[in-house]
Amino acid sequence: xxxxxxCSFPKCLTGRLVAExxxxxxLNAEHCLxxxxxxxxYERGIRDNPWTSQRRQYSAIPKKDDGSKRMWEQSQLxxxxxxxxxxxxxxxxxxxxxxxxxxxxxxxxxxxxxxxKSQKTRPGEKIELPKAGPSSKKGATxxxxxxxxxxxxxxxxxxxxxxxxTSKQSSLQQNVPDKAAKSSKGKSNKKQQAMKxxxxxxxxxxxxMKSISAAKRSKPVTKQEHAKPAASPVSHSMPKASESPxxxxxxxxxxxxxxxxxxxxxxxxxxxxxxxxxGTEKVIDVKEVNRDxxxxxxxxxxxxxxxxxxxxxxxxxxxxxxxxxxxKRKTLTVNxxxxxxxxxxxxGSLHHIRQLFFLVEEAGLxxxxxxxxxxxxxMGRNPESSSRIISRCLQQMEExxxxxxxxxxxxxxxxxxxxxxxxxVCTVRPxxxxxxxxxxxxxxxxxxxxxxxxxxEVRYPKLDFSLEDLQDRFKRQLALEQASTITIxxxxxxxxxxxxxxxxxxxxxxxxxxxxxNLLQALRxxxxxxxxxxxxxxxxDIYPFLCILRDGDYVNVMLQGLANLPPSGDSLLNMAKELGxxxxxxxxxxxxxxxxxxxxxxxxxNSYTELLAKDTKSSSVLPREQWNRLEVERSAGPSLLSDDMxxxxxxxxxxxxxxxxxxxxxxxxQNNILNPAQEKKLIPALYHMYTFxxxxxxxxxxxxxxxxxxxxxxxxxxxxxxxxxxxMLCPPVPWTSPKSGAYLLTPTKLMRxxxxxxQHQQLLEKCRNEDLHxxxxxxxxxxxxxxxxxxxxxxxxxxxxxxKGSEKLDIPPPVSEAPEIPRFNPxxxxxxxxxxxxxxxxxxxxxxxxxxxxxxxxxxxYKLSIANHVRDEVFWFPHNMDFRGRTYPCPPYFNHLGSDxxxxxxxxxxxxPLGPKGLDWLKIHLVNLTGLKKRSSLAGRLEYANSIMExxxxxxxxxxxxxxxxxxxxxxxxxxxxxxxIANASRSPDHTKFISHFPVHQDGSCNGLQxxxxxxxxxxxxxxxxxxxxxxxxxxxxxxxxxxxxFRARDAAKDLKIAQVLEGFISRKVVKQTVMxxxxxxxxxxxRLQIEKRLKEIDDFPKEHIWDxxxxxxxxxxxSLKEMFTGTRExxxxxxxxxxxxxxxxxxxxxxxxxxxxxxxxxxxxxNHVLKSNIQFLSLQINHDIHERPDTVKQKNAFPxxxxxxxxxTHMMLTALYCYSAGITFVSVHDCFWTHALTVDxxxxxxxxxxxxxxxxxxxxxxxxxxLQKYCSGPVGERxxxxxxxxxxxxxxxxxxxxxxxxxxxxxxxSTYFFS
Length: 1316
Description:
The chain has 48 helices and 23 strands. The protein is mainly alpha-helical.
């Protein structure tokens, strides 16, 4: 019994009425579906209730206003059903006789099933088929031309279906053994009951038992049914592969006997079953995601924004519109109804809650814990709710397998919802208190078990700030995020102001004020029209999304998008995504404020700072654990975790394109604004045009040259950014789950994904919490590092930036320095066709150069302006990761992953004394930055640094007037910053006590090959990449170049011409890029292009031989790598072939890192989604849809590099955790680790220990076991067909892990140049 029924006892239904309804359903079992439906709708009644203001029509054909049209449609449905009956009668094999089709109650649809597919027959119900005979064609004589077309299409389809099945049956009859024929013939002569119990194993497509059932219901299985279950819910029951009389014949390999093959497969299958029973491997299926997930999410978002804006009537109409149409009902989930329940619960309307529970039951769905939470909240608010109703509600929850504790543990509360639920529960259980579980299971992964269990003596590091200071910083960051945007001074404001700049700024300000007024009016007019229009297609209804913010906020979003538009324009799709995302972020922040969680957030954060502040007691509690503990202790009131619906990519683009359309239509500018002598005329400020990108035509938004000229001359002094672009002014919120962490209010994903991809988040949310602890804690450690600005260096860089930049020093010049775009008339007859083609190429080249220069200039402007804005602040970078586990700072422009310029102006906020070896590490780091002495030992580098101390000090004191030694370094700005730090330290009274804030880097030596060599225990490969201790660092690029040179000399001696041409041209630089990228999956084609580019840079190399030379060299590079890294190539080939077979079987490649992070490759075959908008039709290319087949080429090519990336991120995370435990500062840029000069030795020790610990795990064996369990544990059918042979081949390959060499992994701990 549903909650609706038990709540309706005291008010609506009497026991007699319930009995009458049950009896009536039994009596009406033989009646027509449509008659029963109409009678039920009439009897259900629509009383004085806004939910039933529209008459319910549960027809497979949507309701129409015209009665005759509705009658015609119903007659068409009968025509189709009768035609189907005829088809079923004719599809008889082996004299199987059918009597009639019984029409049962209309099905409650399940999620994911289309309305025209039959449901499972309930156990115990008879399936009878009518005898063949003519059908009465109702409505066939109707004078409606479309009816004939509609009917003919259906009958043509049915005829095609019948013909296909008949041909299949005839071919099967020829191959069926006599024994099977006799058996099936005997069965066909039995009664209906015997036919049902036989499961129809010998019935072929077309002779399947059909039913239109009430719902998919569970009933106790009888003995007869237990042996032979009921028919499948799909339209036609297919015979099991093991019982099929015919299968596709496929050749069996001759070299192995059939028995041996089957024995091997069975042995592997037995192993897989054993692994599954022990539960040692976690296999999570992402294909459980519903095909209609995006549409269902759109429906929920629509309802949510309607409720948020208080538009109850629209929300009701929207829900009923989808509920009343069976074809659209599949887009509704329990969450859709729960959103409305929550809204009515706020009003205390138990009557509406009852109606919603009734709708949930009608939809064939089951109320979840959030449904009961809304009901209990409503009862808590409604003073008329009796204890009897509450008791019945709690009883029903228990019957559904839910408890009151589940409500408080799983539900997300807003405002006072939790208090109201507790009030209702305490009405019947006065002593009840929600159970609080403060202790969560510890992560038990072998790599981090000691980190979590052995910390009695550990005291984690504190921040160098007082408690009061941290709490004040929180208030400032909260205000910044609540404002959602921030306006800062541009570094170009330091330029002297001219009269023309003042005039242009005034013109621009006047235009913006005018545009703001026009946009505001146009938006209000559009909303008025959209609000009154009755759309037939609710998918295109964006009206509610235009009401969630103030009108002025939308206008500001549009004007901000205009300000960010490049002079060369941007694609409509990019601009729409930018505007739509900005609206979504503002909405999320407003929702959190509306739910009253900000006050609770402030309370918890203020207590959390006690763990971090230097003036509080030290602790061995991790930030994540402390935050979780505080949330449990302060569980009263709203939840911190938000349950806001994440808008789909299509929805964001749809909303953004509407705003872009407003911009294009409404922004006008006077054509004589710069030249008053011209005739006055209003012209568009923005143009919508079409252009080609990679052979695809795309919409493009381009500003008018007049607007571009005004913006360029104005050189505005203000820049407006979204708040999340800026570094945080307080320590980030620790990641506690895949949904909670980083910023205070701004929504942030734990895992970066392609827009619209949901499989990664699905995997993360299905993981056990404790399995993600290590990953979350490592991200928290990286985000806890405080930074500050190197102000002296920043001032130098800004001065060069404002003085036309410097290409040599990587400071981009202004676009005024760009080459002038040639102008010519293509219709001028004086130009020859060759000259015209040449001029067009020159124009395109100049435009491309202009666009590149503008992009680089704006990127530098943003970075330098943000750095200048926080020059006197201490700040933090919250971190998240990509789908492989590689970590990134969340602020996009200014962070330590940036260029040489950005890294140079960043310092650790916390300073530490250099100690006895700190100054030496600074000098070695300086030499590393110059790119010199790469083959020298550390002692040799230190000696070289001491020998050039005069140049170092001169660079620090006179960077632009002295010898300028630093300018010739590989990383000039970081070199200059290091020179300044060395100068200050060496001039201090005691350099060991000098407080240094400077980060010192330790870089991996071709880190990808290091992981491959360790996986394969390859001695030669390990030596080449410095896993083996050596006196001097080994350079794998030089070694490969030397090997290639030996091959070339051998071939030249054999008179090979291209080998003779290449004499003297093979160098480290020519082969470096190819060697470096081979480990990441570069093909021979890509490698040839890389080498070709290097050869073109050599002036003396004969250009006519470039193609032949690059083709020859890439072959030799691959050959030398195969000789040097035998284990590496075998592992890479095994990974590639495994991914190919997995993708070919229809699955995407998945694995779990040694730190428990689940990974799935989101590469699927692309499909186009056409989005209709006012401005144009947008074609969205979607290549991450999990319901499309995997892209085999991308899956196999990407698996080796992605797997290695997941290993290097695991190594980095382990190093971060154990450095945190050791109390030292640690930051990484992938395989480049940063720390203070004082703690370099400690970090190096931890780094090597964790690399050894990581590769001491059976990584490849665990991967093999995981893939066998995931991809080879399902049934494959008959063991003679092609599918089985592919399955057998894949199982063999996945089980055959490449053999390893004899390298002693522990030698890595002694290797000086492993990271150096």
